[in-house]
Amino acid sequence: MARNDMVEQLSGVDLFSTCTARELTLIARVTEERSVDSGTAVVEQGASGNQLYLIVAGEAEVIRDGRSVARLGPGQYFGELAVLDGAPRGATVTASSDLELLVLGQREVAAVLDEWPGVSRKLLVTLAARLRQAEADAATH
After folding, report:
1. Is 125 helix (H, G, I), strand (E, B) or coil?
2. Quick one: which of 60, 113, 122, 131 has the most CB atoms within 10 Å?
3. Portion of the chain with pLDDT greater than 90, in percent
């Protein structure tokens, strides 16, 4: 993928919506592309993790404790908790179709958060929303 295309993909991700074009270009430089075949687990619940995944194309299913809890598609991301604290993954994410991903490692994410407070705030809001949803899901089961 051309660097300009990668910048465009990153700009469409809610997490990076507060970043300037210059910031997105810097993030794109440290972002890797990865293709995953349908049916492949990208991350597994309980495994250690140090990468954040952004979905460019395709769909993935999020499975926690053997139960499907979400479906993710283009513009969505996963792995933000493990990349922040290095704790084991809280869910398995499996490709429901062939996936095209952008991948940011823990070191790169830390640098982005340190340098751009707007991204940090956006990530905190996203994490709070996901925690609230997990609590609501747990209360109904």
Report:
1. helix
2. 60
3. 41
Q: List the domains of the chain with CATH numbers.
A: 3-139 (2.60.120.10)
Nearest residue to 15 (alpha-carbon basis) of 97, 98, 130: 130
> Would you say 24 and 102 are in contact if contact means Cβ atoms under 8 Å apart?
no
d(CA 47, CA 91): 9
- Give the integer Cα–Cα distance in Å for 104 and 50: 9
The one-character DSSP state at 26 is H
Residue located via tokens 């499996």:
94
Q: How far apart are CA 114 and CA 11, in angstroms?
A: 19
Torsion angles phi and psi, residue 97, rounded to 5: -145, 175
